Amino acid sequence: MARIPDSFIQDLLNRVDIVDVVERYLPLKKGGQNYMACCPFHKEKSPSFTVSPNKQFYHCFGCGAHGSAVSFVMEYEGLTFPEAVAKLAESIGLQVPQEAGGGPETPRAEPGVFDALKAACDYYRQALKSAPSAINYLKGRGLDGKTAARFGLGYAPGGDDWQALKKVFPDYDWNKLLAEAGLVIDKEDTKRRYDRFRDRVMFPILNQRGAVIGFGGRVMGQGEPKYLNSPETPVFEKGRELYGLTQARAAIREVGRVLVVEGYMDVVMLAQHGVEYAVATLGTACTPEHVKKLLKLADDVVFCFDGDKAGRKAAWRALENSLEILADGKKLTFLFLPEEHDPDSYVREYGQGAFEAQVTQQAVPLAQFLLRELSAQVDMDSDEGRARLIHLAKPLLARVSAPAYALMLRKRLAEACGLALNELDGVLGGGGEARAAPAEYVAERGAEYMQDDGERQWQPSSEREYGARRSERGNWREGRGNWKEGRSDWKEGRGNWKDGRRERPLQPLPRPHAGSSDPLQRLLQLVLAAPMLAQSGEPLWQGWPAEQLVVQVLQHVRGLPAQAQSALVLEHWRDTVVFERLNAALADGERLFGRMEEAERAEEFAALLQTAGQVLARPTTLGRRAELEWRAAHGGLTEAEKQEYLALLAQRRG
């Protein structure tokens, strides 16, 4: 698959000014060396959104949004990376080159497909003006002309004319683009062509750039199917697109919430009544791609379904497709309207206020909905029924990757089954094995509480209290230190007991001036925030393990032109698995080092290079487990390192 060369992206970022780019979308006010504004990505009254002309970088201290000029255009307009690059390049008169990549070629539309769809859309809109039956139908549904125009509604003529689009396309009978765009159907047996959409109210479907990519057509009376959608085409994939997103984007950003409904008319009528942050799936169940897009749009996603059996089935499909994508800090809820209503009829009968009260007060959180649906399938009054509930929930819980959310789900399930959390974890994980200390407990207490063959094993609070009472009676655990008069021989700085012998503690490494839980991560944050530090002096990282991300970043920065900016460094890793990690590290680096003087940053960089080098040298003699123990005792572990340490312990026990 063709890709945009890195050299072009670097040249583009060097030529555009992020201040000019952002000012095309919102007014900026000078504040010291930077520019300020109210953040366009979340609702706020006081400006916390800053744009740095020196670093060519934006950052919001309220919601954490940050990035380069390319990132801003992507987030603000909802564009893909290539689309944002093309838009910026066009603004300064550059042509985007392409270079061959290693991936498979993706299907591309022939030039003219978008033009064909646009021409058909214009025709349908004009046809609506002279179609009394369609106008009366829309008026009967309560739709006004202003809303119909905003969403570009039209009418596909029917009756005896099976080739109405001939009025638009003189080459109708042989134009291949019409078939490729899904506008016509070719009958192979009769070799005859006719319009796909006939005698239907037409809802144009737009992509994120506002171009027509397909249609949904609704019958006005009795008939099947009630809704007819465009087929899959090179420009239209139902499992990825959302109806009404172009019109709803500004409201979603303003409210911080996106409402997902089932039908086109639901979106249109909600917007007419002031609920402008609604979108709809296109006649399909909510797919994982839909969920990914929704969670990028807002932190609060509400799925709104009819209260009947079909609505609950659709809601369950949405839940299943959300489990692996759900992230901590995101909120997914499910709203079920009374069975006699859909969003369209409810908002028309009760108004905006009543509908939004349903959204904010009656929507059920994902965890509650999951357990409620599963509990309805079993007898919760019997042990067998509760065991069955755990059996049903286990594969679903295993798909949740968000650690905090997974913990809360397990706690809810444990409470529902009348179990302690550790008992449930034993069942879910196979049971019978010694449990490792919770990662947050390890991080707080350091290596003293790291589980090992000759060290303490973590216990829940109630068990720790019981152990403390036992300690008053003498030995706590055989071979693990003697307790005298309620006190242990274990004292900080005097070593650990193992097999009756006291081990000497590891000698601490030199520390940089500012405290850090991980010198490698801190070094990564600093070099991303101030790349020029790595462009001068001796490259002390030569010889460090090449698989370390910080080494790769240092090497890349070393090869860039002098005074390379942070945004330029970051864009090199766009569309890679480490991009989000680097993006977050850059934001942390800006927060930690952004206000330091240049000399202070250089001193910090030198100290971190020394410390990081010694940390990377330790595993060759002590092993990875010992390194993690040392880090836990001298600052703490990252979440990934905590999980890695626990996995190493499990391997050792096995």
UniProtKB/TrEMBL annotation:
Ranges for domain Toprim: 256-338
One Pfam family this sequence matches: DNAG_N
Span list, region Disordered: 449-517
Subunit structure: Monomer. Interacts with DnaB.
Keyword Zinc: yes
Chain's role: RNA polymerase that catalyzes the synthesis of short RNA molecules used as primers for DNA polymerase during DNA replication.
GO molecular function, one term: zinc ion binding
Record-stated family: Belongs to the DnaG primase family.
Enzyme Commission identifier(s): 2.7.7.101
Zinc is among the record's keywords: yes
Obligatory cofactor(s): Zn(2+)
Protein's name in the database: DNA primase
Domain comment as written in the entry: Contains an N-terminal zinc-binding domain, a central core domain that contains the primase activity, and a C-terminal DnaB-binding domain.
SMART domains, per the entry: TOPRIM, ZnF_CHCC
Domain of life: Bacteria
Annotated keywords: ATP-binding, DNA replication, DNA-binding, DNA-directed RNA polymerase, Helicase, Hydrolase, Magnesium, Metal-binding, Nucleotide-binding, Nucleotidyltransferase, Primosome, Transcription, Transferase, Zinc, Zinc-finger
Cofactor note: Binds 1 zinc ion per monomer.
Signal peptide start and end residues: none
Residue spans of biased composition, Basic and acidic residues class: 462-505
Zn finger intervals (CHC2-type): 39-63
Substrates-to-products reaction catalysed: ssDNA + n NTP = ssDNA/pppN(pN)n-1 hybrid + (n-1) diphosphate
GO biological process, one term: DNA replication, synthesis of primer
GO cellular component, one term: primosome complex
Enzyme class: transferase
Entry-linked HAMAP family: DNA_primase_DnaG (MF_00974)
